[in-house]
Amino acid sequence: MPPLKDSVYDVLKWITLVVIPACTTFYTVVAPLFGWYDPAVIAKVSAAVCTLIGAIIGISTAQYNAKK
Question: What is the pLDDT of residue 8?
């Protein structure tokens, strides 16, 4: 797998560390108030997405550091 470009890495890291957790927290708090779809399911999917992106970032970082 080719290493990620710096700009792609930065965006993925920001999405993984800030955007997805913030959206998940918002949804799990607000969903029961409005009768939206099951917040627990959304939280599990969100955790899976964060884990996937984190793994991709980790692999890319390891490959980048190995070349140094």
Answer: 86
